[in-house]
Amino acid sequence: MKGIGGRRGPEGYVGELYYRQYRSEVEDLGELMRLVEEELSEPADRVVYTFRYFVIEWPHLAFLVFPSTESRIPIGTIVCKQDDHRGRTNRGYIAMLSVDRGWRRRGIASRLIRMAIDEMTRRGAHEIVLETECDNSTSIALYESLGFMREKRLARFYSNGKDA
Ligand SMILES: CC(C)(COP(=O)(O)OP(=O)(O)OC[C@H]1O[C@@H](n2cnc3c(N)ncnc32)[C@H](O)[C@@H]1OP(=O)(O)O)[C@@H](O)C(=O)NCCC(=O)NCCS
């Protein structure tokens, strides 16, 4: 797997951690959903629906990270899509991002985001966008640390009534 970027170990590895693209619903769906459902505020049924929407069309833009190649339990995931935005730009979109609580502040989310951006850029993305809850200071700090800029506030964007 190419495009991990920055400090690198052998292909696919960063230190002991093994990063890879999403493979299949049978192999990855359950664990990916567990990671996402644990942390995101959207209702589970919506997460399943949303998840399938993304990985069926853009399986190459979903990534998982494992503590080792032998492990079947991922500790982080990112799910994205990429399409033409109003006929004007090729837009990459980060839909879901989650890292297991026990593995945070080790650069895993940053690495997953960079991998997704590399893949979207390789496939012609002009811009990468995402939404996050307006009070998710962790996520905002993370994306700002990677150079993302705030563009819009979306009122009551989430089903819990929060702005994005
Ligand atoms: C947000 C989340 C994915 C970050 O994962 P992570 O692997 O811990 O992030 P990283 O280690 O790559 O952090 C990179 C940078 O982001 C910022 N950051 C991350 N967590 C932070 C925190 N708790 N407080 C302040 N800044 C933080 C820091 O700038 C950090 O760099 P540093 O550790 O050198 O200071 C993780 O906390 C998570 O899964 N949260 C719940 C789900 C969520 O909010 N997803 C995003 C919704 S869009």
TrEMBL record:
Q: What are this entry's molecular-function GO terms?
A: protein-N-terminal amino-acid acetyltransferase activity
Residues in N-acetyltransferase domain copies: 17-164
- What is one term from the GO cellular component aspect held by the record? NatC complex
Q: What is this protein called?
A: Acyl-CoA N-acyltransferase
Q: What Pfam families does the annotation carry? A: Acetyltransf_1
Q: Which organism is it from?
A: Dioszegia hungarica
Write the record's keywords in alphabetical order, separated by commas: Acyltransferase, Transferase
Spell out the CDD domains in the cross-references: NAT_SF
Family from the record: Belongs to the acetyltransferase family. MAK3 subfamily.
Q: Which PROSITE patterns match?
A: GNAT
Under Gene3D superfamilies, the record lists: 3.40.630.30
